[in-house]
Description:
CATH architecture of chain B: Beta Barrel
Helix content of chain B: under 10%
Largest interface: A-B, 32 and 39 residues
Structural class of chain B: mainly beta
Strand order of the largest sheet of chain B: 1-2-3-4-5-6-7-8-9-10-11-12
CATH architecture of chain A: Sandwich
Distance between the termini of chain A: 63 Å
Oligomer: heterodimer
Largest sheet of chain A: 5 strands, mixed
Shape of chain A: globular
Radius of gyration of chain A: 18 Å
Largest sheet of chain B: 12 strands, antiparallel, barrel
Number of helices of chain A: 1
Structural class of chain A: mainly beta
Strand order of the largest sheet of chain A: 3-9-8-5-6
Radius of gyration of chain B: 17 Å
Number of strands of chain B: 12
CATH class of chain B: Mainly Beta
CATH topology of chain A: Immunoglobulin-like
Order of helices and strands of chain B: HEEEEEEEEEEEE
CATH superfamily of chain A: Cupredoxins -  blue copper proteins
Number of helices of chain B: 1
Amino acid sequence: MVRRNHLFSPFWLVLMLLPFNLWAKTQEFTLTLENHVFTPSELKIPANEKVKLIIHNKDEVAEEFDSFDLNREKVLFPGKKTRIFIGPLPEGNYEYFGEYNPTTARGVIVVEVNNAD
Amino acid sequence: MSIRVILIILLSFSKVVLADGVVVDKVYHPYVLPNEKEFEWRLMSRQTDNNTILGQRIAYGQSLSETVMIEGYLVGEKTEVEDFGLQAYEVEIRWMLTEQGELWADWGMLFEVEKMHKSNDWEVTTGVLFEKEFGRTSLTLNLFGIYEWGKNLQDEIEMEFRLKYRYRWLPQIQPAIEIYTGENYFGIGPAFMGIQRFDGQKQLKWEAGFITEVSNSGKDHTFRLALEYEF
């Protein structure tokens, strides 16, 4: 006999997928990757706010953005802009690097209470 | 919707299904990376008063797009009545539904089809994958609906729920608590995962956990181990 329950009903699935921050305004910040170097190498963002990081990979090869501090890992396709959502974060320095060029492609996100950039 | 309400609903469902399989396996994260390829090996050893069940899986997976990954498994098991041997084949698809960090939580889906090696028995799984960051900790939830049918199986729908609450301490050592429910089973125990990066996209991930069944009397411990090499 087949037993059924209703946990997978469309109602529950739609409810779970609702974007809870649908109306929130997210600040955008930009990084550029060129010649395997992130610019600016130090980027300041506000504390306790979610922000959108736009990374423009101007190189002709892919890179992979990686940060254990930020808990993010994302492929940056060549010639493309990639968005990465980070935060809300407490004050501090959060390091990141490019997996394919870890010696040159490095940077830090500085999270401050009073945003400067 | 409160996570607590979801948990209460899921835990209550875990009590109403029959036991015919192993619940402790792996808590899936809802993320997919493009250009990713991986080999995976999983070990599961369940020891009770009466017997020991040993399960192993080897798998190859690769991403098909920026949001979809496919993985094929060979499943081996030793049960109380059978020596260790190939038991089943499985194909699994993971689908990342939302960009990490964009919404209040991150969501994904999982689809699996499994066929027994020696018999015409099948299992289809559909799952919802959830992850939410709380500072340096992450809560990961999996909810699976499983439909089984075949020559030797009674047609039935089962529910399984898995939870991992992880502290991202160091890349190599991320301690966690894991909970597994389903098939008249409620297990909880310590676990950890870690990652070691090599050149480029190459990295080795490991997970281990020691889960104890707490809803029934008697000994019932499960040790699980998973290694993933991504390249």
